[in-house]
Every structure is written in C-alpha cells, then in structure tokens.
Amino acid sequence: MNQDKKSGLEIGIYTLADIGPDPLTGNTITAKERVKEIIQAAKLADEAGLDVFGVGEHHRLDYASSSPAVLLAAVAQGTKHIRLTSTTSVLSTLDPVRLFEDFATLDLLSDGRAEILAGRGAFIESFPLFGYSTNDYDELFEEHMDLLLQLTENETVTWSGNFRPSLRNAEIAPRPAQEKLPVWIGVGGTPESAVRAGRFGVGMALAILGGPPKRFKPLVDLYRQAGIDAGHAAEALKVGVTGHAYIAKTTQQAKDEFYPYHSNYWAYLNRQRGMGIKPSRAEFEQMASPDTALFVGSPQQVVEKILQQYELFGHQRFLAQLDIGGQPFKNVAKGIELLATEVAPIVRRETSK
Questions:
Q1: What structural domains and CATH numbers belong to the chain?
Q2: What pLDDT score was predicted for residue 268?
Q3: Closest Cα partner for 118 from 147, 84, 90, 156?
Q4: Overall pTM surpassing 0.85 (yes/no)
C-alpha cells in the first residue's frame, strides 16, 4: 500500500462541513454531529489509504467549520498517515502569523502532515466579522500571502505592510516538524489568481465543479508560465484539482442516488447568495455527462474522468468532496471506500507510468 501511494497522483477527500437538511428525510443534523462525522470520515480515509484530508473555513451557521486547524488537530489524533490541509483558509481575513502558528502546531501534533491551502473565500462574511473591508479584497490577499510565505521560510521575521502592524525581528513559534510547511493557493477560475499562484511559487488547487475541464487548461498553462517567469523550479509548481464526487456500483445508480443531494446543495447555496435556483434533473444529467468535471458515476467512469483531466493538466493531486447536500454518513462512508479501493489503485497505477 505505502509503496503504491508514493507514485502517481495523490488522491484524497475534503469537506466544507455544510449543514443542510437531508432532502429525503427532512432531517438536519447538529453542528456537533457534523463535526463528529468529519472526524470519522478522516479516520476511514486514513485507514483506506487515501493521501489527503481537507477541511474548509466558513463563518456561517449553516457550516460547522470556522476553524480548520482545530478540527484537523482532532483528526490528527485519530489518524496516522493521511496529510491534513485546509480547503481553504480565508487568508484575506486571517492574521498570517496566527494562521502559520496554528498550522505549525498541527504539524507537530501530526508528525509533519500539515499543509495550508489559502484562498480568498467564496463568501464575504469574514470581512465584517474581523474588521476588514471588501474594498481591499485583492490587496489583503496579496499582502497576507507575502507575509505567510516569509513565515514559512524564517524563524525570525522583519516585515511591514498596509493592513497589519509591522514586525521587527519577531520570533515565529513553534517551527513545524517539516522543514517547510507546504502552502497552496485555491483558484476558482480567474487568470489573475492563477498567475498570482505561479508568481508566489506555491501549489495551485483548482476548484472545478462542473462544465468541460478543458476550459481550465489555459489557467494551468498561465500558472506554470508565471511560476517559471518568476524563477521558480518547474517541479515546485504543483497543480491540484478539487471537485464534487459521488461513486456507486453503476453510473445510473450514482446519478439516481446523488441527484437529490446535488440539487439540494445548489438550492441552499444559491439561496445563500440570494438566488432561488435549483438544477433540474435534465440539467443534472448534462452536468454529469462523461466529458464534464462532475465526478459522478461508477468507479470506472470516475477513473476515466480523473485520467481525462490528468491528460489535460498533468496534475499532482485530486481531492473529492463527497459529503454535500445533507447526505447521510453511510453514503459518505461508501464513497470513501469506493474511492480508496476501486478508483485510487487504477489512477495511481496509470499516472505513475
């Protein structure tokens, strides 16, 4: 198993910890239950031999995770091998020193398994919550990223910027167990974000939630070119793909079982954004067709989709979000098992050739 894991694409799962009603039963679980399920999912993923487990950050009552580092610290105690990452940390409104120190602590707790995936966030509720203005959306991210990367490099930091007090020979403690804490940037779909990730020389995680994957190819090319132009080594420029997934014995079964939850997820997500739109079954069928990025189907269908994207991007990591839309935990557990036992071995074999 371990020998197998070292070659080919890294495969993992992530959660944003959304709390929605189960559309089939009308049941909504509590935040306490959701958090316990997330820890259980991480243990299953670790035991099954998956490579990465991620937890998101939202500051809303319909999500159970506002502090990925704390949740991942709990996960670290119940797992042995799986890498632990935020997906994503909202870097624009987090203090980079606090973020670094939290994840350096997680790294010590987990024997060197921690990573930070930083993003600008899909929602903006953290801006008023922590006293920032959305007018500074881009500048905040740029400045905080600059500081975060300096913290990963140096034990003592001297730094100044516009949005937080300057640092003068500040001791940044603790230092992580790894020589350097890995940092990635999450990118939704803008060329500017891809170029920024390349310029900083960190990994780029692409959120691909639907449509044809080939429309993301220009972003991967821009990222790699920007990284090389900025003087970073090509092998340091890692690409990850993240997306919604549901796996069942047959593709028809996967679509039939997943549609109510997928539709429910978009219904409450769009409602949070002030739109009442819910995808119809016909729209879902289109979104789940073989040449799109929605990873729904039999293990074979999901393998084909991952490999199709690998042909396009030559990426290093794939993370599946298996638990959207108020699904019962048994569905998620089944998805983890199928991903680890029927999808991952073939993908690793094919991508390590």
A1: 2-351 (3.20.20.30)
A2: 87
A3: 90
A4: yes
